[in-house]
Every structure is written in structure tokens, then in C-alpha cells.
Design brief:
The protein has 317 residues and is of the alpha+beta class. It contains nine helices and 13 strands. It starts with 10 loop residues before the first helix and ends with a helix. The mean pLDDT is 94.
């Protein structure tokens, strides 16, 4: 079993923070998080104890504006597309945004930190379309599918522990928020997720299905077996979101069962790991009303729409 994080500053945590600050100064990030105030609304659910967070972040829409990205130097205007690797399964024919050689050709400003997690090689890069300060994408050095394995869970725990528990680790499965299903990756952030304040025993009051494992009590095996049971019950449609965090200094694994057919919600669009953890990221024009009218009922309705209706049957098996 991985050790509990020490909660003391670590070399990796220091490296990540220094890299984030450098990328902000260099102009690699869409906006400077140190100078930008993000409109935020919070609303507390009395039954679960979770204060849902809604944030209005229209700057993230720039990530799809090629001309603007080139003008800023975030995207290399002289990139050689012949050098770029594309996964043949990508229906849009895009190059893989997470392959190291593609990043070097397309995003020469991006700094990649090499990591060894659970014995395998990864890279961490600041997410230029950041959701929260300190938001990195951690991608496998090998181009392989975004699928759950026990190694993935071990790597998430390893990364969390090696940052002294300060960086939360999020995984989005295919059809559960992952926009690049062909390359294994995670998201990390130092910002606390709302669900970390979920009261003990209040899981049934949370608006979407969630299973919570305390590493010290349950161990990794129980979490891995529960996740496998869900995924193997219907391999065509099952997916997951995962969050590794340390509320109150104790490492926990939050497992959100998902159904690929319920990937989006009205007023939100794609729902991923941030949203299922209670942090609603809104940036598209059609999402502005959702932000302005945000309430506990809004959060509950979005999460209700993506909650798999048959989770209770599988959980009881």
C-alpha cells in the first residue's frame, strides 16, 4: 500500500509550482492566473455538506482559436504537420496533443517535467487552458489508451503522495470528460475539490453516484476491485471518474461510476472529473445562464442527468 503523504513540502511539489509560475510569466497560459479574478459562485447543499462551486471562465474558449494561439506563440505557426503523429482512430484526424514529439513541434514554449510514477514514465505540463491555478496535465510517455488499470490507480496515488498530498489527482475515463481518449493522462491541481468536504456517510445524498475509499482503512485492493466490477459489468458503456485527495490529511479515493451514453448535461455540455467533484467549469456561451442562475438545484440537476441509473444494481451485486 502506498504511504500516506507527509504534508511537508516536497521536491516535486516545488518543481511543479516553479514551472507553473514560469509558464505564466512566459505567456504560455491563456491568461495570467496571478492577475485574473475568476467570477465564482458557491452554494452549499445542507444534506451532503458540500459547497458546490460554479466558475465562469470564457477565456478557455480561446483554446479552439488557432489564429489567436499562433499569434500568442502558444501554438507554433511554423509547425510541420508532416511530423505530427495522429492516432488513426481519431474521427477528426487530429494529431495527438499529448505525445511528447508533437508537443515539441506544436508548443515549443511548453515545459515538460519528466516523472516516474509507479515504475512507468510520464510527463507533466502546465495546461495552457487552465481550469485552476496549478493545473497540469500528466501524460504517459507512451501513447496508449485512456483506460483504467490498477497501475493507473497506483500512479495517481504515487503522484499524490510525492506532492505531500497538496496536488489532487483527477482521471477522466472515455465518455466521462476525456477529450483525448487515445493517450493516457490525468489532471492535477492544488485547489480543493468541493466533494472533499462530503460528510462521512452522506454519499447517498450526493447528486451523482460516488464510492469513497479511505486508503488507510480500505486499502487499494478494495477500490480496484470495485472499479473493475463496474467496468466489467458492461464494457461497451461503462466509464469512470476518479479523484485522489487527502481531506483532513488522510488519503481518499473518490470513484464516480459513469455511463458513456450520459456524457453531457443540459446547460453544461461535457461533464468530467471537476464537475462530478462539485466544481462546475463554465466557459461556452450557452453555459453563461447556468452560471448566472447557479444554485444547489442546478448542481443537483446536472449531476442527476449523468448519474448511471443502474449503479445501485451493480453495487449491490
Amino acid at each position: 500500500m502506498p504511504p500516506e503523504p507527509s504534508m511537508r513540502p516536497t521536491e516535486l511539489g516545488t518543481q511543479l509550482r516553479a514551472t507553473w509560475e514560469t509558464q505564466a510569466r512566459d505567456g504560455f497560459l491563456l491568461t495570467d492566473p496571478n492577475a485574473m479574478q475568476i467570477p465564482t459562485r458557491e452554494t452549499e447543499d445542507e444534506r451532503s455538506g458540500v459547497a458546490f462551486r460554479f466558475r465562469w471562465m470564457p477565456h478557455r474558449e480561446i483554446r479552439g482559436n488557432v489564429a489567436e494561439l499562433e499569434a500568442r506563440g502558444i501554438l507554433n505557426p511554423k509547425r510541420d504537420t508532416e511530423k505530427l503523429f495522429s492516432d488513426p482512430r481519431d474521427p477528426f484526424g487530429r494529431h495527438c496533443f499529448l505525445c511528447r514529439d508533437n508537443i515539441a513541434e506544436c508548443h515549443p514554449m511548453e515545459i515538460l517535467l519528466p516523472l516516474t510514477l509507479a515504475g512507468e514514465e510520464y510527463f507533466a505540463g502546465a495546461n495552457f487552458a487552465w481550469i485552476e491555478p496549478g493545473h497540469f496535465t500528466v501524460m504517459s510517455a507512451e501513447h496508449r489508451d485512456q483506460v483504467y488499470t490498477r497501475h493507473l490507480l497506483e500512479a495517481m496515488l504515487d503522484l499524490h503522495v510525492r506532492t505531500a498530498g497538496q496536488f489532487r489527482v483527477i482521471f477522466n475515463g472515455r465518455g466521462a470528460g476525456a477529450t483525448i481518449p487515445w493517450h493516457l493522462h490525468m489532471q492535477i491541481t492544488e485547489v480543493q475539490m468541493p466533494i472533499e468536504t462530503l460528510r462521512a456517510g452522506a454519499e447517498e445524498h450526493y447528486p451523482t453516484a460516488v464510492c469513497r475509499f479511505r486508503l488507510a482503512e480500505d486499502g487499494l485492493d478494495r477500490a480496484d476491485q470495485t472499479i473493475d466490477q463496474w467496468l466489467n459489468s458492461d464494457q461497451s458503456h461503462r466509464s469512470i471518474n476518479l479523484l485522489v485527495a487527502s481531506p483532513n490529511g488522510e488519503t481518499e479515493i473518490f470513484f464516480f461510476p459513469r455511463d458513456r451514453r450520459l456524457a453531457t448535461a443540459e446547460g453544461k455540455g461535457l461533464v468530467g472529473g471537476f464537475e462530478v467533484a462539485g466544481d462546475f467549469v463554465l466557459s461556452a456561451p450557452h453555459e453563461e445562464d447556468t452560471y448566472r442562475n447557479a444554485s444547489v438545484a442546478t448542481a443537483a440537476e446536472i449531476l442527476r442527468q449523468i448519474s448511471p441509473p443502474d449503479w445501485g444494481t451493480v453495487a449491490a451485486a
